[in-house]
Design brief:
It is built from 4 helices and 3 strands, in the order H-H-H-E-E-E-H. The chain is mainly alpha-helical. The model has no long low-confidence stretch (mean pLDDT about 80). InterPro entries: DVU0524-like.
């Protein structure tokens, strides 16, 4: 049996077409198939921290926009006032939270605190709130 060169060329050409078609199909199916979602596992401590941070942020936001109305908000704000030594109120300067010190004589003396003092009080308010939220989660 004799095999001609044109028959060998036809077989090689057909094989080449199958290879290129297979590569195209593989690329196309790879694009169509969504990549498996990465699975992220979070430790229980990280989840607790995330929940505490979220609750703390919500409480601070409520205090900023509405004032201390709920029991926990009042506790936190009272502790901040006790540490500061004077009653406080919260105001806004643009988008920033600004604290005002209220004099002890029926609110006659209201004084805006400096931005540094307000930032320090805000940081302390966040710390106190975070501590209270953590304590309430353990109970």
């Amino acid at each position: 049996m004799t095999i001609n060169t044109y028959q060998v060329h036809n077989v090689l050409r057909a094989y080449g077409r199958q290879l290129s078609t297979g590569k195209r199909l593989a690329r196309q199916t790879a694009k169509e198939t969504p990549a498996p979602a990465d699975k992220i596992t979070i430790s229980t401590e990280a989840r607790k921290k995330s929940v505490v941070d979220k609750v703390t942020s919500d409480i601070i936001d409520r205090i900023y926009h509405e004032g201390p109305n709920e029991t926990l908000e009042k506790e936190v704000f009272k502790e901040l006032e006790d540490e500061f030594g004077n009653p406080l109120s919260i105001g806004r300067k643009g988008t920033e939270m600004v604290f005002r010190a209220i004099g002890k004589r029926l609110g006659e003396d209201i004084q805006d605190l400096s931005q540094e003092d307000s930032d320090r009080l805000k940081a302390r308010l966040e710390e106190i709130t975070r501590d209270k939220v953590q304590q309430n989660m353990l109970q």
